[in-house]
Amino acid sequence: MLSLLDLLRNRLASLLPSELKTTELHRLLSPHHHALLLTQRRATMIVNRVRLFAFLFAVLTPAWSIVDWMVFPFELWLHLALQRLLVCLAFAGVLLFYRPSGQLFDAYRAIGILFAIPTVFYITSHYLLGSYQLTQFSAAVGAGYAFLPFVLMAGLAIFPLTFVENLILALVLLMAQALAGYLSWTTLNWPSFAGAFWLLMLIAGVTGLACMSQLAFMIALVRQAIRDPLTGVFSRGSGEEILRLQWDASERHNSALSVAFIDLDHFKRINDTFGHDAGDRVLVQASRNMLDSLRSSDSLVRWGGEEFLLIMPDTDMTQARRALERLMQHGWGSRPDGSRLTASIGLAERCYDRSASPRDLLEAADRRMYQAKQAGRDRLGLIS
């Protein structure tokens, strides 16, 4: 049984982009284990594509009233035209007033509103059209309204969504189709309805694969953009972005935020004595040792050379000090000659230091790191 599961997992992994690791497969299923920067950039992309979708529908929805006016009775046309006007205004509101914030909840709300507007229009127009006796060309145009769920389902393919996210949205559209069938129960052509429902499910499967494929490429690209190529930890540019996001969250919730500068002691001697390749191996080993001791919510950044920045959200000064002491006990690794590798650390916390900005917080930690070096290295600096 286990070998069969391994075979299936390997087969699925072979269908993914080559840049995506097998261990990252679970990120395509649920958003719960996504990195902070991936979540922020994915949320921004979703909202931007929602606004693009809203612009398209805001333009095309009222334009179709011309066709309705040519084929439908005036009373039916008037009701449909009013509905289309409301839909157009709703889409215009999404386009004008919704802006990306980088928050996933806002992205969910945006995509929910986007698909709720035409879904409600589909159900109400379907019920309205069913109350009129349409013939010939007008009946053919009225039947065209039934294609709206297919357009919406196919439209999901433009979003980088996980399997769970796509499944929820697809189920909503399928339930809307089922509700429309229920409202026209007495006149429903069951073979035609069943065929359309099956086709809608098939499109849902295809769009699900398209969404996860987009997400897989996004994960790979974001990882390459935000990671230090040598150590695999966050690069300085992404670290600055993480710190800004965590600072904003800390201020918003009035919570603790600790940062620590970690500078490997006498690292220049390693490069001078044993060469840069040996120095690179020491950096990689030190990075892995640090990552092994960190929480999933912590972020380790290679700030420059042998200097690292550790960002610890929801962590006060006492908790951060204990965490860093455990890290020091765990060890940073060893130098090429086998001796113990040490580091000097400067710690600062937003509330404790009454920092007014992320720069103030960094400066406090940096100052204490240099004081730890001046005091003899291999120690934690806490007080300026």
Please explain how this structure is put together.
Residues 255-384 form the GGDEF domain. The chain has 384 residues and is an alpha+beta fold. It folds into two domains: 25-225, no CATH class; 236-381, Reverse transcriptase/Diguanylate cyclase domain (Alpha-Beta Plaits, 2-Layer Sandwich), CATH 3.30.70. 66% of the residues lie in helices and 8% in strands. It contains 15 helices and five strands. It has a five-stranded mixed sheet with strand order 2-3-1-4-5, sandwiched between helices. Strand 2 (299-304) and strand 3 (307-313) form a beta hairpin. Helix 2 (36-63) packs antiparallel against helix 4 (74-97). 33% of the residues are buried.
Defining key terms:
diguanylate cyclase, membrane, 5-stranded mixed β-sheet, Alpha-Beta Plaits, 384 residues, 2 domains, Nucleotide_cyclase, alpha+beta, 8% strand, Diguanylate_Cyclase, EC 2.7.7.65
Brief rundown of the structure:
Helix content is 66%, strand content 8%. It has helices at residues 2-14, 36-63, 65-71, 74-97, 104-130, 136-144, 148-155, 163-183, 190-226, 236-253, 267-274, 276-292, 317-330, 350-353, 358-374, and strands at 257-264, 299-304, 307-313, 343-349, 380-381.
